[in-house]
Amino acid sequence: MTRGEEARRLGRIAVGAGVAGAVGAVGAAVGAGAVVLLKRQAAHARALIGKPLGEVAPYADKVYKKSYGDPIELLLLGDSIAAGLGAEDADGTLGARLARGIAKKTHRSVRLTTAAKVGSESWMLPEQLMSLLPSYRSDVAVVIVGGNDVTHRIPVAESVKHLTETIEVLRVRGAAVVVGTCPDLGALKPVPQPLRSLGSRASRQLATAQAAAAHEAGAYVVSLAHVVGPFFITNPDEMFSLDRFHPSAVGYKRTAKAVLPSVLAALGVRDEVPFGHQAPLF
Questions:
Q1: Element (H, E) at 220
Q2: Domain presence at residue 54
Q3: What is the pTM of this model?
Q4: Residue among 80, 159, 200, 241 flagged as catalytic
Q5: Which of 57, 232, 242, 253 could staple 85 via S-S, CB 3.0–4.6 A?
Q6: 26 and 74: one domain?
Q7: Among 138, 159, 223, 246, which one carries the catalytic annotation?
Q8: How far apart, in whole angstroms, are the C-alpha atoms of residue 197 and residue 266?
Q9: SS3 at position 159
Q10: Does residue 1 have a pLDDT over 50?
Q11: 145 and 194 both lie in a single domain
């Protein structure tokens, strides 16, 4: 393989297993020294992060605030963030935080169903829907996916296609949909530069494409990079869990608070959404 071919291939290699990757074209001008550096950085990031949390998130599915009655059906789809990996217990997961927030604002109980799976990519969203009972219908579905698409070099167009199809299925089934776009992988401090910048660029590109497609498909859109990303950058010790990659219970609390306005708007509880949120076209 020539240096030019190796450099072009670098734009497609993973930054680290489960860390960052598919970071866009580096270009043929990158020399062999830079190729070696980035490979070493990827290996270093893998060693630093590892999998101290395992691959199973706390099980949080139940009815929250049962005494309120008339439950709202809340569905979570997507990857480890949607599943709640990094929380110390069920109460700290994103789903539990959202369920309690919805119950507080609506004075109705909330039945949480989590179909999200750790490690999922966008193409797995249909499988998550199929895992539900045929009769299941949600009032609102929250979809957060994309980080693994970036790390596993999934083309943006392919990722967006699966997301759009999932939104369409959910809406046909009567659910309002809220999409949290791909977080900015530039917040991952264990990933050294220039790898972190490349991962940031790729994740932002995917988030932009997700936002446009979800908005057009009739979903509410929440830019996680804008509404919660700054907290992870300025307070990483508090916001990240042990692996420095997934949110902690505090990180999920902040994320749930950031996503909640669009969830409430999707349920018809509030009319407007704040900065970083986008209401659907129809």
A1: strand 220-222
A2: no
A3: 0.83
A4: 80
A5: 57
A6: no
A7: 246
A8: 34
A9: helix
A10: no
A11: yes
Q: Residue 192: its pLDDT value, please?
A: 63
Is residue 40 very low, low, confident or very high in pLDDT (cuts 50, 70, 90)? Answer: low
Q: Higher-confidence residue: 69 or 23?
A: 69
Name the amino acid, one letter, at 5.
E
Collapsed DSSP state (helix, strand, coil) of residue 78: strand
Domain count within the chain: 2
Q: Token pair of 61, please?
A: 């599915």
Q: Does 222 reside within a domain?
A: yes
Residues 138 and 231 occupy one common structural domain: yes
Range in 36-40, 111-115, 220-224, 252-256 the model is least confident about: 36-40
Instruction: State what percent of residues in the chain have pLDDT above 90.
Output: 63
72-78/110-114 β-pairing: parallel
Same domain, 98 and 171: yes
Whether the CB-CB separation of 79 and 145 falls below 8 Å is answered with: yes
Q: Which of 79, 139, 184, 243 is catalytic?
A: 243
For the chain, how far is it from start to end, CA to CA, in angstroms? 51
> Which has more pLDDT, 119 or 166?
166
Q: Is 107 a catalytic residue?
A: no
Domain of residue 209 covers 63-278
277 is catalytic: no
What was the pLDDT predicted at 3? Answer: 40
Domain membership flag for residue 55: no
For position 14, what pLDDT does the model report? 34
Q: How many residues does the chain have?
A: 282
- In whole angstroms, what is the distance from residue 180 CA to residue 207 CA? 9
Instruction: Let me know if residue 56 belongs to a domain.
Output: no
Average pLDDT, rounded, for the chain: 83
Q: Give yes or no: residues 133 and 248 share one domain.
A: yes
Q: What is the DSSP letter of 87?
A: B
80 catalytic? Reply is: yes
Report the distance separating Cα 29 and Cα 7, nearest Å.
7
Give the per-residue pLDDT at 171: 97
